[in-house]
Amino acid sequence: MFLASIPSPDRGVWHLGPIPIRAYALCIIAGIVVAIWWGERRWAQRGGAKGTITDIAVFAVPFGLIGGRLYHVITDYQLYFGEGRDPVRALYIWDGGLGIWGAIALGGVGAWIACRRRGIPLPAVADAVAPGIVVAQAIGRLGNYFNQELYGRPTDLPWGLEIYCRTTPGYPASQCTLENPGPLDGVAVSDVPLGTVHPTFLYELLWSLGVALLIVWADRRFRLGHGRVFALYVAGYTAGRFWIEFMRTDEANEILGLRVNNWTSMLLFAGAVAYFVLARRRGPREEPAALRGKDEPGPEPGDSDDSGSPGTEDEPDRGQAGDGSADEAPAGDQRKVEPGQ
């Protein structure tokens, strides 16, 4: 077979003297950097001022980290509160545990504050950063891979994920099980896996990348605005998260037999679809002038209104794609307009 199985890393934490270097944290940071970088490019190419997304991130990122942790602690409170639990560990964000919807919700509050200060529309900002956010989520899932967490049921499929026992001086190998392979800062003591499971981190990573491609294509094709790109991202991501949640075996609270994240996915999917449909009434995408905010200069020469992937440029708007209008050459311009230009 092409694959026998996917081995897990032997550890998720390295030490430089007394300083722990955590793969989970590095993945989160890398995802944030990618989201800001790509969001900046998309914002500038739509006509907004360069540096705007970075300025907004100063508010949104801290709010998002707090919100992500709160969502995780609230929905998985049994991990931190109750008999034999240490509530202080709820603050240990470096040990993993960020709920994306708490991060989006509270991060959105931070972004709204920043947008109000600059006088720019939040929905347009959300559209600009949506592809970067979902790619950041994909990168973040690599952190779960290094942590050996959030995987699925045992499987004999050729892409199954091998789980190893990891130990520390205070955690002997005899306590390792497939459900609890050891501390996050442990080191694998054997190359014989405890078992082979569904790599749900990989399923979500690939799904997220697919959603990024979908929303970039839809934005380029239909020139979406007023938060519709972000709504499409939410709908696409939650559709995948719903079925992936059924495969996970980590401890989670349930409501009427379904995991909390299944309910969250269903509700957010319905809300996103409704918003996507209703926001169409607001008309064509926001004009570049609306994105410049208070006392911000216009776009620099060479910038274009591009909602696609990094490193590409489109023709300027000559009509709202999908509404029956066609690209036309400006008056007095005798150049031939090729089909598909």
UniProtKB/TrEMBL annotation:
The upper taxonomy is: Bacteria, Bacillati, Actinomycetota, Actinomycetes, Pseudonocardiales
**UniProt KW keywords:** Cell membrane, Lipoprotein, Membrane, Transferase, Transmembrane, Transmembrane helix
Q: Does the keyword Transferase apply?
A: yes
Q: What is its EC number?
A: 2.5.1.145
UniProt topology in membrane: Multi-pass membrane protein
Q: In which pathway does it act?
A: Protein modification; lipoprotein biosynthesis (diacylglyceryl transfer)
Looking at the record, which segments are called Disordered?
A: 286-341
Question: Among the record's GO biological process terms, what is one?
Answer: lipoprotein biosynthetic process
Q: Which InterPro entries match?
A: Lgt (IPR001640)
Role noted for this protein = Catalyzes the transfer of the diacylglyceryl group from phosphatidylglycerol to the sulfhydryl group of the N-terminal cysteine of a prolipoprotein, the first step in the formation of mature lipoproteins.
Principal localization?
Answer: membrane
The UniProt entry's sequence similarity note says: Belongs to the Lgt family.
- Give TM regions: 20-39, 51-71, 91-113, 120-140, 201-218, 230-248, 260-278
The record, for PANTHER family, names:
PHOSPHATIDYLGLYCEROL--PROLIPOPROTEIN DIACYLGLYCERYL TRANSFERASE, PROLIPOPROTEIN DIACYLGLYCERYL TRANSFERASE
Q: Which GO terms describe its cellular component?
A: plasma membrane
The superkingdom of the source organism is Bacteria
> Localized where?
Cell membrane
Task: Output this protein's name.
Answer: Phosphatidylglycerol--prolipoprotein diacylglyceryl transferase
Q: What does the record give under GO molecular function?
A: phosphatidylglycerol-prolipoprotein diacylglyceryl transferase activity
Q: Which residues does a 1,2-diacyl-sn-glycero-3-phospho-(1'-sn-glycerol) bind? A: R141
Ranges of compositional bias, category Acidic residues: 302-316
List, as start-end ranges, the regions of compositional bias called Basic and acidic residues.
Answer: 286-297
Instruction: Tell whether Oxidoreductase is among the UniProt keywords.
Output: no
